[in-house]
Design a protein that fits this description.
Number of helices: 16
Helix content: over 70%
CATH topology: Na+/H+ antiporter like fold
CATH class: Mainly Alpha
Shape: globular
Order of helices and strands: HHHHHHHHHHHHHHHH
Number of strands: 0
CATH architecture: Up-down Bundle
Radius of gyration: 19 Å
Strand content: under 5%
Distance between the termini: 13 Å
């Protein structure tokens, strides 16, 4: 299992461990808090700069596919999240139960959705368009869903709407509008910018978990609750993938489109979720709220890597695909 875990996931785990033993406090926490806000703005600026207009236009004619991916991402998943939250509330700490619901409200990943679709020989242009649209709309949809479904928990206030706009949406739009000046630089410096991208997330995770540890996260969350979170995440992923597979069969999507829908609709973005949580939740809550997302993120990578390799074979029979989803 550890051989399949990528280095970045190991870095995320190491960051959590480091924050658990050496959390930032006082003035250091304040300085890192401002740095985190800047990192979040930079992260969304880069996301906007990397998203080409061609990727938005490409594949727009396949409206059935894109509508289904958006419906799975922002309708089906939240329904599963509400059910999981209701079941988890008597068993888990409130922030962990909220984290389960929060992860279901997030947009899809971009890079890994496209990569797995390509490996599985699916419809890559459609995956590019769907995953990009999911992330673009997620900047608006996720805060709205959090306010609608989690407002009773005091997660979002009216004043924070402007925080979301200025810290997430404005940098994203600015990054996209800057493409005439920055597109060439972004394209040439993909490797370097990926370090900025991932480093920003590590900083957000460290400050979030530091605040949570200072507030007594690990004294409130026993090991058995972490195991239960893992189980809930596995069930959420399996339910989403099996339902997606069933719907694509009933709607008679061809194999390439069904693969794109499966990989774009069943995944949730850590890159978007961590900074959004930093804006939407209090510093004391963020560490516990993003813990289910981090577990779900690793699970989806392991399962999707396995499925992509199976799909890459020569046109598997429908029952074999069904068995592959269940086995993964």
């Amino acid at each position: 299992m550890f051989k399949r875990i990528d280095r970045y996931s190991l870095l995320l785990i190491a960051t959590v461990v480091f924050a658990s033993f050496l959390p930032c406090r006082g003035t250091t926490a304040t300085i890192l808090g401002y740095a985190t806000e800047g990192a979040i703005a930079l992260l969304f600026f880069l996301h906007g700069a990397k998203l080409s207009r061609a990727a938005i236009v490409q594949g727009l004619t396949n409206w059935r596919l894109h509508l289904l991916v958006l419906a799975i991402t922002f309708c089906l998943f939240p329904m599963f999240g509400l059910a999981a939250h209701a079941l988890a509330m008597p068993l888990l700490a409130p922030s962990l139960a909220s984290g389960l619901l929060f992860l279901t409200l997030l947009p899809s990943t971009v890079q890994s959705s496209i990569a797995f679709t390509s490996i599985a020989r699916g419809n890559v242009p459609a995956a590019v368009c769907s995953a990009s649209a999911s992330n673009l709309l997620g900047i608006l949809f996720t805060p709205a869903l959090v306010a609608l479904l989690m407002g009773g928990h005091g997660s979002v206030s009216g004043g924070e709407v402007w925080t979301i706009v200025f810290q997430l949406l404005v940098p994203f739009v600015a990054g996209h509008l800057s493409r005439p000046l920055t597109a060439g630089f972004v394209e040439r410096r993909k490797a370097m910018l990926s370090y900025v991208d991932r480093g920003s997330i590590l900083l957000v995770v460290y400050t979030a978990f530091s605040a949570a540890v200072v507030e007594g996260l690990w004294t409130r969350v026993p090991v058995w609750q972490l195991a239960l979170v893992f189980l809930f995440c596995a069930v959420l992923l399996a339910a989403a993938m099996l339902t997606t597979r069933f719907v694509t069969k009933r709607l008679k999507f061809d194999r390439a489109d069904a693969i794109a829908i499966l990989f774009c609709g069943s995944k949730k973005s850590l890159a978007a979720g961590v900074p959004m949580a930093g804006v939407l939740f209090s510093s004391a809550e963020v560490g516990a709220v993003i813990l289910p997302l981090m577990i779900f993120h690793q699970l989806q990578l392991l399962v999707c890597a396995n499925l992509a390799q199976r799909y890459a074979g020569t046109a598997p029979r429908e029952e074999d695909v069904e068995n592959a989803v269940i086995a993964s």
